[in-house]
Amino acid sequence: xxxMNSWNEGIANAIAYIEENLTQELDxxxxxxxxxxxxxxxxxxxxxxxxxxxxxxxxxxxxxxxAQELGCTDIRVLDVALKYGYDSPDSFNRAFTRFHGLSPxxxxxxxxxxxxxxxxxxxxxxxxxxxxEYKIVEKEQFTVMGKARRFNMETSYKEIPAFxxxxxxxxxxxxxxxxxxxxxxxxxxxxxxxxxDNYIPWEDIxxxxxxxxxxxxxxxxxxxxxxxxxxxxRVNSEIWSEWLPSCKTYTLAGNYNIEMYAPxxxxxxxTYSEIWIPVKKA
Length: 282
Fold this sequence. Notes:
By secondary structure, the protein is an alpha+beta fold. The chain has helices at 7-20, 28-34, 39-50, 54-72, 77-83, 89-100, 156-168, 230-246; strands at residues 135-139, 142-152, 180-185, 190-198, 210-214, 217-225, 250-252, 256-261, 272-281. Strands 1, 2, 3, 4, 5, 6, 7, 8 and 9 form a 9-stranded antiparallel sheet that branches.
């Protein structure tokens, strides 16, 4: 795991590796290795810091370079498509048109407006201190029960809210209130997400539900007060971009994290929630 004082260096190394290999097959595990961290946490941190997923960044950079080559060389569209990782001219044409607003062949015409996505550069900027509350707690092993679904890291930011909306309308909602949102790494590209409650051993497990054991360990717990999802997203961003990079005492532990949701407040629009990150002594 990346030492906290090497945080920016690690992300910068990963971006440099991507840039050097845009015409090669890129594997998320190898990219994360250059950042000295797991694929699971690298993708979360990259999105929090950069505002785009790793896959979106790679696609945007490749399509930027593809347009530049089409505009200043006689290279065939098929060869450009293959060079930047597209299996067919059709898939390349669709991606290129979505990104640039015109077809690859039209990009050859002089004077056509194209989009350019510049390489990211990580800079350490000293800003006014942010007051972020947290507490370090030891928790015994516990078991959660809930509805599980696997998500791709690239699309989970849109799909998980839809998963919650679906659950709130389902027959399972009375049985599973949704005290937790549990992320558990699967293979670095996908992860399992559970809408869950505490498991009560003497009660039946509803059909369609599963249990997962959360190991005993040390957790950094961050309170979030305010309307969801804005409050949760704000604190999440501050954890990855400010608290963890500056923390000298703890480093990331297991490849999982938890959102905890308290019952709704009587005050309209005010919700209390927490983000739990597993940590260990640095």
